[in-house]
Structure formats: C-alpha cells, structure tokens
Amino acid sequence: MIGYVCLASAHEQAGTLGRKNSTAAGTDIFQIDCDDDGNGDPHHLIANVSDLRPVNPALIGIQITSLTTGKESTLSIDPKDNDGKASADVKVVSDRGPYQVKIQRIRTPKDKKGVEVYFMVFHCETATGAHTGTSDPVMKQNQ
Questions:
Q1: CA-wise closest residue to 95 among 73, 118, 135, 127
Q2: Which among 13, 58, 97, 110 has the fewest CB atoms less than 10 Å away?
Q3: What is the C-alpha separation between 132 and 10, in angstroms, rounded?
Q4: How far apart, in whole angstroms, are the C-alpha atoms of residue 127 and residue 95?
Q5: pLDDT digit string (tens) for 17-38?
Q6: pLDDT tens, 73-91?
Q7: pLDDT at position 103, please?
Q8: How many whole angstroms separate alpha carbon 140 and alpha carbon 20?
C-alpha cells in the first residue's frame, strides 16, 4: 500500500532521445515549478529516470538545476535498460524553483543507432518530505 501511495503522489513524463539512424547524444530539458497546494511550503524537487529501450546500450541520465540559485544535483544514470528499476533519485533544494531538469542520452562504446525511450518520475516536496504542488513539466529543449 505504501508503494501505491507514493506512485499516486508522483508526477510522470515519458519521452524519447535521438533519431532512428543516429548514435548522437541528446538532451531534453524541462522546467518544473513548485507551489504550496495546501500540503506545505515547497522545499525541493526530487526526480529519477528509467531507460526503457532494452536494445541499445546507450545510457539515460537525469540532472536537476535550480534556475534561481544555480545549485545542481549530481548526474544520476539508469545503468541497466528496461529492468524495472530507475536511476537513483536526484534532489535540489530551492523552494519553489523554477527547476531545470535535463534528461540526457549518454553514448557508450557499444552504442547502436536508434531512439532511446525514457520515463521520468518527479515531484516537489516540503522539508519534511510531504508531497506538495508540482507543475506539469514545460519542455524547453527536445533533442
């Protein structure tokens, strides 16, 4: 039941990176804002990404940047395609944001041509970890 509650309070975004006939790296960029929806003042944004395409050894990573303070999370990579597990969570503290979230296709020596498919889960939380108001992501760059 706890897993179900967490999923119900999260926000999700699917997308693709790359092109059918290319091995080029790519980056999608989203902007996300937080607000107090009655659950408390926003404190941070937390997110992870899953690589859903099992036929390509390219990797998918995620990184958050506060557009207000310039603080950045580490880059977190989903190390194994389509295994049902996401990258480790990344988090940046910057109250309401705005936050920039980058989803990156990272080339590997065994990279194959083709599109990578990803699934991002993100949400704003209060300082105590309660889910609070989270905007829909606005795409700023689509590669």
A1: 127
A2: 110
A3: 10
A4: 9
A5: 988 888 888 999 999 999 999 9
A6: 999 999 988 898 999 999 9
A7: 97
A8: 22
SS3 5: helix
Joined together, the tokens standing for residue 122 give 């993100």
Q: Over the range 29-58, which residues count as b (16 or more CB within 10 Å of their CB) and which as e?
A: bbebbbeeeeebebbbbbbbbbbbbeebeb
CA–chain centroid gap for 106, Å, is 14
- pLDDT (tens digit, 9 = 90+) per residue, 101-129? 999 998 888 888 888 999 999 999 999 99
- Overall CATH class of domain 2-141: mainly beta
Burial of 11 per CB tally in 10 Å (0-12, 13-18, 19+): middle
State residue 34's pLDDT score.
97
Q: Which of 18, 15, 12, 80 lies closest to 48 in space, CA to CA?
A: 12
**Rounded distance between C-alpha atoms, residue 43 and residue 110, angstroms:** 40
